[in-house]
What we know:
Number of strands: 21
Helix content: 10-25%
Distance between the termini: 39 Å
Oligomer: single chain
Structural class: alpha+beta
Low-confidence stretches: none
Shape: elongated
Mean pLDDT: 90
Order of helices and strands: EEEHEEEHHHHEHEHEEHHEEEEEEEEEEE
Radius of gyration: 24 Å
Amino acid sequence: MAEVSLRDVRKSYGDTAVIHGVDCAIADGEFLVVVGPSGCGKSTLLRMIAGLEVITGGEVSIGDRVVNELEPAERDIAMVFQNYALYPHMTVFDNMAYGLKIRKIPKAEIDTRVRKAAAILELDDDMLRRKPRQLSGGQRQRVAMGRAIVREPSVFLFDEPLSNLDAKLRVQMRIEIKKLQETLGITSVYVTHDQVEAMTLGHRLLVLNAGNVEQLGTPITLYERPASTFVAGFIGSPAMNLMPAAIGVDGASVALPGGVAFTLAFGAQNGEPGRPVTLGVRPEHFEVDDSGAITLTVTLVEQLGADTIVHGALGADEFDVTIRMRGVVTIAPGEKLSLTVPSEHIHVFDRETGKRLG
Length: 358
């Protein structure tokens, strides 16, 4: 096992910069998830750690070695790809053993390592004799992970390994990957565009936006204190409601254009009255209260069983807002809800920069 360190890592294709100076220290045994929308550079960053992409600037270290100039095979990493990358003509056993065979590992040790990994991943003897075409998508992905495990690497790299699976299998495999990493304790870097995967898997998350680091922290930190409107809108499902507003005349509140005001927990430190800001409230933090000063006109209701998602127009300016209510709620479009928001759940961001205030 080993630490992974990224110091001002950059990547350009000609004059086009795609990674803009990423700094991150990944502790020994840590599970870091790199998350962001498609095209933000997260797979490129992972491939630079793996040695599959040339680094334009900065340093990547694994353990006590700077690996910029090392070939992938020399970096002591194992990578799990989105498309499994299994050899179709080989059995599951041979797929898992292949990397060890070309390294001239003794046959008895290969057998021991493959069967140990198979036991961890619940691949029985019958499955070890099958070809990849005889396996389900989830089983193929377990074989791909088994091939990585047998190498006993210092670092695991996962490149969107669950994106080809259906929703139920993704949940099952997410749990298996979490258990696997906790059992083996191997430093892991996992790339995904799915923020639910990111929140449930990672010890820490690195949020990328157009090749820039928006925020690095624990899942709960990113949920409770997003550093920017980008993170606020990306982390959480449904996404945080973001509305144009302004600091109130007392400096201790923020008001929507229609006059609806929200009390702030952190007071006048946000700047001068009238300052343009973006107000953020997560759907689950609106509370139904008959005496609430906020009125929502319901436009659409989604019954999910455990929760009810209500879409509506807020206040006189009819901002589109989503709220989450617990359980099954009987409500119809056109009805009105009176709402409040506890001050500790109000987020305020600078309108121009998108950065968090307070």
